Structure formats: C-alpha cells, structure tokens
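call fold target=DUF7312 domain-containing protein
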Amino acid sequence: MSDWKYDVDDVGEDADDASPDVFAESEPLEPGSPSAENVLFVLLGVLTVVFMFLHVTGVA
C-alpha cells in the first residue's frame, strides 16, 4: 500500500474525469447576521494590527 494520498492514475494525464469534485459546495452559502463573538474577534484583530503599525512607525 502506498503512503501517498493519491496515485499517479488519479492525478496524471490519464486521470479519471469521474473523480469527485473536492471543493464543490453541496448547498449554496447564504448570508447571515454576524454573531457578537465574531465581531469581537474581527475588531480585536483590527485594533492589534493598527497598534502594531503605529508601534513600528514610532507613533505609539
């Protein structure tokens, strides 16, 4: 048995066209409202990057 995830037959020139589409979405994505936790982490990331930028430029 091979240690590789895919065989040459799966990815080479003679590969099967019937192989499953790994990245296909089973159902469409629909927009929703962001949760408070997600908003908090995005704001924390933005503030961290702004602080680091100001610190590197010597303003803060």
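return ok
The first helix runs from residue 8 to 11. The chain is about 45% helix and 0% strand.
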